[in-house]
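ok so for the tutorial part 2 we go from a plain amino acid sequence to predicted structure tokens. step 1 is just haveing the sequence, like this:
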Amino acid sequence: MTSGKPLAAIAPFNLEATVRVLQRRPANRVEVLEDGRYRRLFETPQGLVLAEVENKGSIEAPNLRWRVRHGEANEMLPAKLASMLGLDIDPAPLLRMAAAEDALRPTAEALLGMRPPRFGEWYEAFGNVIPFQQVSLEAGIAIVGRFIERFGQRLEFDSRAYFSFPDPAVVADASTERVRECGLSRTKAESLQRIARLIASGELSKEKIAALPTDDAIAALEELPGIGPWSAGLVLLRGLGRLDVFPPGDVGAMRGLNKLLRLESDDELAHVVKRFGEYRGYLYFHALGRSLLDKGLIQHAS
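step 2 — the prediction. this is what the tokens look like for a chain of 302 residues:
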């Protein structure tokens, strides 16, 4: 087995922490982290491709290597992996901002090298937001897991099953009842299907939304079925890597940050979020990372 090809990463880089906040929970059916290796199954025009990324160095001196374990690599795969793992983001400003908050510093040190990750596919951003509306994180993960198993593709490799995130065209052609059987309300199922049709037809392109200023992008997303301010913010943050967005009204993130920063009111939190300016979305990932640290799902870097 080859050691793989290099994937450029500016130090520090923490593969475990980055993938864990991408997953949200280890039960994630698409993002797999085992024995220090990150694996992800992609659907491509050439067929299924199982990619793997491993850090053969350390957090302070990363040596990322990627390889294809199944299928044929295409020239876009390294760039896609780099984007998903936040490797195109300069960590220096993030480190400076985190260090400037005394209460945040212990968590920032424990998560040293964590980058803000992004979902791998455009439809995946919506499929990982709409099912989570007004339900717990665990419930959302379970619903999305059933959605993936029903509509995604499956690959048996190395004694385990891997799943790709569903192609929007497949979801668009399914009956609404089949989508609902994953545990979704009719409204959520219909929203996922209508957005799938818009993406499959090319009417709702990632490039079009990415080209818009943040306020305009949020306004455009809010015109979509089932997308309000919170959902639009998460699509931009986790789908397009817009770190200037902190999802409004994210109860879990706000509760986590209030606890993390030892704040007594949402007004105090609003001032901290404002201080982070164009990097305010990084606070969202800190809150999520802290909860994963507390659950023992991320090892302390320090």
